[in-house]
Amino acid sequence: MTEIGRKSGGCQCGKVRYNVDMTGAEAYLCHCRMCQRATGGFAASFVQIPTGAIEWQGEPSWYGSSPVAKRPFCPDCGTPLGFKFNNRTGLDLTLGSLDDPYGLDPVAHAGAESIHESWLDTSKLPRKRSDETASVVKQWQDAGLQVPE
């Protein structure tokens, strides 16, 4: 369990924001096909919290992704914000929607039937920062901006 206090987060456009008490939060990766499709990734990274631990500023929309669960998202930019089973009180927030997602280490893999093993350990792949990629830098400069973190 992680004891890191309060964090904030929200969607990409800023319409839906939240503050959350991370006391007892547990991070995990879900590899099930529904999470892969909902996030567009090889897995969804979540932080499991009690529903009462979150305070929304701007209400998310909810999508009934299956007969047993729903997912909050921003109705404007589409950012996936989490996952919630219909019959449970907990909420799983997407790790990427946190303003500062650091300090949370995964404790488990869920949906293991759909794991893409080759994507689990990518530590030996070459790494390149966005601000080191000329084509990315040019796109941002042409827009009159700098590459965001």
Automatic annotation (TrEMBL):
Pfam families: GFA (PF04828). Residues 126-149 are annotated as: Disordered. The keyword Zinc applies. It comes from the Bacteria. The keyword S-adenosyl-L-methionine does not apply. Keywords: Lyase, Metal-binding, Zinc. Residues 7-108 form the CENP-V/GFA domain. SUPFAM superfamilies: Mss4-like. InterPro entries: CENP-V/GFA, Mss4-like_sf. GO terms for molecular function: carbon-sulfur lyase activity; metal ion binding. Belongs to the Gfa family. This is GFA family protein. The lineage of its organism: Bacteria, Pseudomonadati, Pseudomonadota, Alphaproteobacteria, Sphingomonadales.
